[in-house]
Design a protein that fits this description.
Order of helices and strands: EHHEEEHEHEEH
Number of domains: 1
Number of strands: 7
Oligomer: single chain
CATH architecture: 3-Layer(aba) Sandwich
Largest sheet: 7 strands, mixed
Radius of gyration: 16 Å
Helix content: 25-40%
Bound molecules: coenzyme A
Shape: globular
């Protein structure tokens, strides 16, 4: 028998806005997947909770079988969306969850009339750089010592909605819907 509950076929992710109870698991994922090897804990539970509760931030979580599979934190500026943090649990990587979370943020940005997405990543994070490149992000510059003086950052950016905002917003919604329905 096959179906979403079959162990070898993961259920499609469901993306929703984070709630207060998500703050600790998100922070723990940041510590182990994004901040690993750096001094301190920048995105600790208190900071993540602050983002969940602040209207300038959008915190999305992807759940698979009621388990936190990934999350994205975006901060809205006047003209740009800054992706502050993004991670997908190792067991769920390469199943398009990162892509779906980014599409979700992009749709939110387009809805808010924002045309640019910016982000930084650790210079040594080659997998994430390839991931962002696959989504159309371009290298902007390197910032030495950006991470606690210990590691450089790579800044990347992508313009969105430049030609036909309504059409592009609809397309990113379509991507999200397709990804929700996809079972790999
Ligand atoms: C980077 C990350 C968010 C990607 O999430 P993901 O759900 O695994 O990515 P997706 O499955 O949506 O990948 C989409 C495409 O990106 C590219 N990609 C993703 N991860 C990649 C990797 N490690 N190496 C090369 N290409 C990669 C591929 O083209 C992939 O498409 P494909 O699987 O059809 O080949 C995830 O690997 C992660 O959480 N890493 C640890 C934390 C981190 O680095 N966060 C980002 C910096 S803050």
């Amino acid at each position: 028998m096959t179906g979403p509950s079959t162990p070898n076929i993961p259920a499609a992710p469901a993306i929703r806005l984070a709630v207060a109870a998500d703050a600790r698991p998100i922070a723990q994922m940041s510590r182990s997947l994004v901040e690993a090897g750096l001094r301190g804990w920048s995105w600790n539970p208190v900071r993540v909770l602050g983002a969940i509760q602040h209207h300038d931030y959008c915190v999305a979580v992807a759940g698979v079988n009621h388990e936190l599979a990934g999350f994205a934190i975006g901060e809205f500026g006047d003209n740009q969306l800054h992706v502050s943090l993004l991670a997908v649990a190792r067991a769920h990587q390469r199943r398009s969850i990162g892509r779906a979370l980014m599409a979700w943020l992009e749709h939110s940005a387009l809805t808010a009339g924002i045309h640019e997405i910016h982000l930084e990543l650790r210079a040594g994070n080659h997998g994430a750089r390839l991931f962002y490149q696959s989504l159309g992000f371009a290298y902007v510059r390197a910032v030495p010592g950006y991470y606690r003086g210990e590691e450089s950052a790579i800044k990347m950016q992508r313009k969105i909605g430049s030609r036909n905002n309504d059409n592009e917003a609809a397309q990113s919604l379509e991507v999200i819907e397709k990804l929700f329905n996809r079972i790999k």
